[in-house]
Automatic annotation (TrEMBL), chain A:
The modification N6-lipoyllysine is found at K95. The glycine decarboxylase (GDC) or glycine cleavage system catalyzes the degradation of glycine. The H protein shuttles the methylamine group of glycine from the P protein to the T protein. The lineage of its organism: Eukaryota, Viridiplantae, Streptophyta, Embryophyta, Tracheophyta. InterPro entries: 2-oxoA_DH_lipoyl-BS, Biotin_lipoyl, GCV_H, GCV_H/Fam206, GCV_H_sub, Single_hybrid_motif. It comes from Eucalyptus grandis (Flooded gum). CDD domains: GCS_H. GO terms for biological process: glycine decarboxylation via glycine cleavage system. This is Glycine cleavage system H protein. Binds 1 lipoyl cofactor covalently. Belongs to the GcvH family. Its main location: mitochondrion. One of its GO terms (cellular component) is mitochondrion. The keyword Transit peptide applies. It comes from the Eukaryota. Keywords: Lipoyl, Mitochondrion, Transit peptide.
UniProtKB/TrEMBL annotation, chain B:
InterPro entries: aa-tRNA-synth_II/BPL/LPL, BPL_LPL_catalytic, Lipoate-ligase_2_inactive. It comes from the Eukaryota. Residues 39-225 form the BPL/LPL catalytic domain. The lineage of its organism: Eukaryota, Viridiplantae, Streptophyta, Embryophyta, Tracheophyta. This is BPL/LPL catalytic domain-containing protein. It comes from Eucalyptus grandis.
Amino acid sequence: MALRMWASSTANALRLSSKASLSPAFSLHRCFSSVLDGLKYAPSHEWVKHEGPVASVGITDHAQDHLGEVVFVDLPEPGGSVSKGGSFGAVESVKATSDINSPISGEIVEVNTKLTETPGLVNSSPYEDGWMIKVKPSDPSELGSLMGPKEYTKFCEEEDAAH
Amino acid sequence: MTIPQRQKLGRPLMKLIRLREWPILQQLHIEEQLLRTSSENWCIINDGTREPTIVMGVSGKPAELLEIKPVLHDQVPVIKRFTGGGTVIVDGGSIFVTFICNKDAVPDLQPYPRPIMSWSSLIYNEVFHGTGDFHLRENDYVFGNRKFGGNAQSITKGRWIHHTSFLWDYEIRNMAYLKLPSRAPEYRSARDHLEFICRMKDYISRSDFIDRTVRALGTHFSVESEELEAIQSGRSTKFSPLSRLLTAQEIESASCELESPKSLACFSSP
């Protein structure tokens, strides 16, 4: 399943259906979880992509692979606020609910309503169609304390090796 | 935040609460509060619950999972709990065992659903050693290919809960309140409830099961008994649990929408 998810997420991001050389936008994890350049990462395995006044948030390929098939996503309403490190929702997979924590603080300006009908987007497209919330950051400097792609890749390797 | 204590042998401390016929909703509230507000490791064992009650997982939909008309007619309580997983009907024949742990309580255990589920089966391998053909099968505890224990979990940033309802005994008529779920493990092979489940009483007594569970825990943790009153006196009044009893109106609305999604009758006031 890990190989299929890696191939699925990679192919989806690269818009590929046949063999091709890997884009430099990707760093590869030895356990086949993809990590994208241009994103920042939290130790609780959420990613954030800051574009202008808004930051998108979701869970990483590493997280979705370890969680298993996502069958339900519980997200807040737009207009609420999130705090860095605080829980804003949950995913259900394999009989478990798992908290999703926000990497940054701010106001929720948009929620991915597609996840209500198609929670599996979190598995098949964790960095694109599986985005969860969009936040107007209240303190953009919080991004500075998050991990970059190389640091996060190493973090995942060390975490998996330790268990 | 208090730091969990370790005894001289290095096993983490686990506090044990033993209850008898405690209402399942209250048990769920205690569990959720301990998961969210405590920094200790806990085991809760509740030997039965007085009133037959349906308990659905966090994403459960009554119309899909329940035979609504008999549930409403017989006024069977329906709870939606804070953990994932499926639907059960519990009563005095059920035994509940719950583990609430810090993520570093079990060495080398990753705080994700499958590793936690596998670890739990190690505990119960010890409990059922020499008793029946026990194993973990697609997230259920089975003897052979018949389920007798249903599991559910909730995982936060630093802690997790794994709780199980065991069918020590059950009333056949109660199973009629539950529909065949659309999402079912492969090994179920479309069997109806009575062909799919079995009674733990055919393998082990209640007291033996509970004693063996406490002993198995003792090989992994330093277990200390705790009285429920000690927890209840320290409960935060600010904590609001998610587990709740569904109202008859909510269950009726679910039934109404299933039969006729756009019917005006679904929206009439009671």
